[in-house]
Design a protein that fits this description.
This protein is of the alpha/beta class. α3 crosses α9 and α6 packs parallel to α7.
Length: 442
């Protein structure tokens, strides 16, 4: 049996043609949404939810029902964290302008942010989204290297600008990425080689493929926990070999920390820290402002200087004082509440609990991840192939039981477990127990 690959937005998507049995008011709301948003409309679950408020690791719908959020990394330190809310409200009541004036809120934030990076990465450009950050990183890499080519993994997603979509294979439905993009498999041990050796060999082969087409290597760009590919974290350090291959070829390493950054993997502030490598460019987005739209690019001064010598770059909203206030509050909360350590402790407990389910449920394949970013594969026990239908069933049954979750991976058969960093051991137990019940009921 062949298993179909899945486009990223289809992994958990509501089918607008299937509203039979919906309450009349909900059916009407969905129809109006479709009429306004057209083909771009994306809602989640077999029956969409209207959310009205949230706090910590929980969200509440219009009927007052409470949902444990195991999906959403945007409010990284917790939904509506009071310190972030207060910082944003205070700043927007005082001043919100672009960055062509001096402003102490912005300066204080950027100093604190840069202090969390290796010394060589000492310049930051603030943007509004992770997509914008990755677009800028690609442009910097091309000017720094004089080359055009990029290497990405086969189910990668890095954003939605025109340029970044080309390095997001999971977003492309009817065509392959552009000729300047080389695709490699997600990291795994293959052909008798370790994960590190196999991934490095894939990168080396991709460089050769680009070169055969007359294209030089600008950068390898990776989400450092490979979230869209299905979450690949171990063994810690496996990125070293690929990084060396890239640098020998004259390319750069771009670490996309939009999803694994800000303490999520439990091994430090950034996903790349687990691997003992220093990227040339780091990009950030969603969790940076705990829901307030902001992003950023951190890089070496010489790379940014060369880019700015060739390009007149500015960003009206990137780095505005309200965004800086939100970002600074997030950094303070991570530090004061020990959320990196919490991610490691609670995430470790959570992962062990999920691994224990493997002993009683043969349809659970691998459990992978680090900190509070875990992937759980569903498989057909008879063949070992990915079971996308079971993943869809589990996602919607979890929602029915008050738990929100999404999917990941090339086939959409991996539960993408990515709660806010305030997630507790009790929350982990609720999730594991509920999943156990769902699988027992099949």
């Amino acid at each position: 049996m062949s298993v179909a690959t899945k486009e990223i937005l289809d992994l958990n998507r509501f089918d607008a043609t299937r509203t039979d049995g919906f309450p009349p008011e909900l059916a009407e709301r969905v129809a109006k949404r479709q009429a306004a948003f057209g083909a771009s409309s994306v809602l989640f679950y077999e029956q969409p939810i209207e959310m009205v408020r949230a706090s910590g690791a929980y969200m509440y719908d219009a009927g007052g029902r409470k949902y444990l959020d195991v999906y959403n990394n945007v409010p990284s330190v917790g939904h509506c964290h009071p310190r972030v809310v207060e910082a944003v409200a205070r700043q927007i009541g005082e001043l919100n302008i672009h960055t062509r004036y001096l402003n102490r809120v912005v300066e204080t934030y950027t100093e604190k942010l840069l202090s969390r990076f290796p010394r060589s990465l000492s310049n930051v450009v603030l943007t509004c989204t992770g997509s914008e950050s990755n677009d800028l990183a690609m442009r910097i890499a091309r000017i720094a290297t004089g080359a055009e080519g990029f290497i990405v993994t086969e189910a990668a997603y890095h954003g939605n600008t025109a340029l970044v979509t080309e390095i997001s294979p999971s977003s492309l439905r009817k065509r392959k990425p552009a000729p300047f993009v080389a695709i490699i498999p997600a990291p795994a041990a293959r052909d008798g080689m370790s994960v590190e050796a196999s991934f490095a060999a894939s990168v080396e082969q991709a460089i050769a493929e680009l070169k055969s087409g007359g294209i030089g290597l600008a950068a390898l760009i990776i989400d450092t926990i490979f979230s869209s590919d299905g979450i690949y974290a171990d063994p810690a350090g496996f990125l070293k070999g690929a990084t060396d291959v890239v640098h020998r070829a004259g390319g750069l390493l771009i670490a996309d920390e939009v999803q694994p950054g800000f303490g999520r993997t439990g091994g430090g502030m950034w996903g790349f820290e687990r691997h003992g490598v220093t990227p040339d460019i780091v990009t950030m987005g969603k969790p940076m402002g705990n829901g307030f739209p902001m992003g950023g690019v951190v890089t070496r001064p010489e790379f940014l200087k060369r880019f700015c010598e060739e390009t007149g770059y500015f960003n009206t909203f990137g780095g505005n004082p309200v965004a800086a206030a939100a970002g600074h509050a997030v950094l303070q909360v991570i530090e004061d509440e020990g959320l990196v350590e919490r991610s490691a402790t609670v995430g470790g407990y959570f992962k062990r609990s999920l691994e224990a389910l493997q002993g009683t449920h043969s349809e659970i394949g691998e459990v992978r991840g680090a900190g509070l970013f875990i992937g759980l594969d569903f498989i057909d026990p008879a063949t070992g192939e990915p079971d996308t239908a079971l993943a869809t069933h589990a996602i919607n049954q979890l929602k029915h039981n008050g738990i929100l979750i999404g999917a990941a991976g090339k086939y959409g058969a991996t539960l993408k477990i990515r709660p806010p960093l305030c997630f507790s051991q009790e929350d982990a137990e609720l999730f594991t127990g509920t999943l156990d019940t769902i699988l027992n009921a099949r």
